[in-house]
Design goal:
By secondary structure, this protein is mainly α. The chain has helices at about 10-15, 20-35, 45-60, 60-65, 70-75, 90-110, 115-140, 150-160, 180, 210, and strands at about 170, 220. The chain has a domain at about 10-160. Helix 3 runs parallel beside helix 8 (about 150-160).
């Protein structure tokens, strides 16, 4: 069993790369100006396609490293305390249901005026607004990356490639628990030290745990 750890948010904020602050600004700009500049709304399908497509190669790596909204949650809200999501939210049927509902609503709105690119931009902006509001609510209620536990893009990425390039755990792990304290998804990493790898398909591969490990026993396949 892993040692008891205090899921303090300090590592999540201190260990974020500088570029994530810039990605966070992308979300703010889209939300603030997208209703007047519909072209900004097309950032949404680009981000969705990138996250889902990237899943085929390295699971949720895009979610953990290049997602604009994820970057916003990591940097601007990383100081918030973390509590696990209710189990029912993590249920596969619930997650796929959320995906189908959101995609269905988006498609229905797009077909209202299919030949108007401005209308499409507004629809994408509206979707970004709704899901970001949900992400902020989950961040405050549960954890900064709470939304990532039910995100439709993440659900697809985890399904198509969540088992690719899992986190490696060396046998010299001392079970100090600092990696778990840093993990934005609150995974029990130490429990899997004897298996030598983390089996969670929803691992964001953000490397926050790798940076937090004082013994440098965590790594990715192929890393030097």
């Amino acid at each position: 069993m892993s040692v008891a750890v205090n899921h303090s948010p300090w590592p999540a904020t201190k260990l974020q790369p500088a570029y994530k602050w810039l990605l966070a600004i992308v979300v703010v700009v889209v939300l603030a100006l997208g209703w007047r500049l519909p072209a900004l709304g097309f950032v949404v399908p680009v981000a969705m396609a990138t996250g889902m497509g990237g899943g085929f190669f390295r699971g949720r790596w895009i979610c953990g490293n290049l997602c604009p909204r994820g970057s916003l949650l990591d940097t601007w809200l990383g100081f918030l305390p973390r509590r696990p999501l209710p189990e029912w939210m993590s249920n596969s049927a619930v997650r796929w249901g959320i995906l189908l509902v959101l995609i269905g609503l988006m498609i229905a709105q797009l077909t209202v005026d299919p030949g108007n690119w401005r209308h499409w931009g507004i629809v994408f902006w509206r979707m970004c607004l709704i899901t970001t509001m949900a992400a902020l609510a989950l961040a405050v209620t549960y954890a900064p990356r709470g939304w990532c536990g039910i995100c439709p893009v993440g659900t697809v990425a985890a399904q198509v490639g969540g088992d690719r390039q899992p986190l490696q755990i060396a046998s010299s792990c001392r079970a100090c628990g600092l990696c778990e304290q840093a993990c934005p998804m609150q995974f029990d990493i130490v429990d899997h030290r004897h298996a030598g790898k983390l089996p969670h398909r929803d691992c964001l591969k953000c490397s926050t745990c790798v940076k937090a490990c004082p013994s440098q026993v965590l790594s990715w396949p192929g890393s030097s």
